[in-house]
Amino acid sequence: MNEFDAAFFRRWLAAARAAVDREADHLTELDSAIGDADHGANLKRGFAAVTEVLDKEPPATPGAVLTTAGRQLISTVGGASGPLYGTLLRHTGKALGEAASVTRQDLATALAAGVAAVGQLGGAQVGDKTMLDALVPAAEALGDSFAAARDAAEAGALATVPLRARKGRASYLGERSVGHQDPGATSSALLIAALAEVAAG
Ligand code: ADP
Ligand code: MG
Question: Which CATH number does the domain 4-199 belong to among 1.10.3880.10, 1.10.10.10, 1.10.10.60, 1.25.40.340?
């Protein structure tokens, strides 16, 4: 069984930062249709701060990498997505505990706990047109493989297009939110794709 250590998790977050940088304009475009056009900038600032702190003082365990990253997102991102992604990473990291390395199965279980914490914090469920529409199926599919998680997150993000937003800023638009892809579900798919990419080596 493959084991993933703290360095792997730092590579994941570095790849996530690169993906967010590359797609920032697209994320902001999606957020300008059903939000306030700051999602790309929010995540760019947040993930730059995350990789900076992880490079400066690399934590020793996968759990500590994720809890440190989560704290950093909460303190640097003003929008709704900062506390939500911060909660995701902090709770996933806490669930990983103090192990020096973890299996994909460990991560799948921990990610499910992180995703549940996002649901608790934001009160959203699958189908409400939020990041959870990508994250819930991704955490489930991670039990099968990294590639399955990536595909499930991408499918989940695409599936937000016909939905009416029931949480967050987009919900203020009511019916007018229909026909647009959710920015947070889209960025969640990017984060899971970054994970699959580093796992593939
Ligand atoms: P803000 O909405 O404060 O401008 P962002 O633009 O950075 O923050 O993030 C918007 C994204 O956050 C949405 O596309 C959605 O996926 C996610 N989001 C907003 N509210 C919630 C919630 N209550 N639960 C889960 N995700 C949410
Ligand atoms: Mg926004």
Answer: 1.25.40.340
Q: Which of 25, 85, 169, 190 to mutate to test the pocket of ligand 1 (most atoms within 8 A of CB)?
A: 169
3-class secondary structure, 101: strand
Which of 134, 37, 36, 126 has the alpha carbon at shortest distance from 85?
134
Name the one residue in this structure whose structure tokens are 């997505």. Answer: 81
169 lines ligand 1 (CB under 6 A): yes
Q: What is the pTM of this model?
A: 0.98
Q: Per-domain residue ranges for the chain?
A: 4-199
pLDDT tens track for 105-121: 999 999 999 999 999 99
pLDDT at residue 1 tops 90: no
- Is the CB of 79 within 6 Å of ligand 1? yes
Say how many Å lie between the CA of residue 184 and the centre of ligand 1: 6
Beta carbon of 133 within 6 Å of any ligand 1 atom: no
Task: Report, as an integer, the average pLDDT of 46-55.
Answer: 98
- Give yes or no for residue 135 CB within 6 A of ligand 1: no
Identify the DSSP state of 5: E
pLDDT, position 78: 86
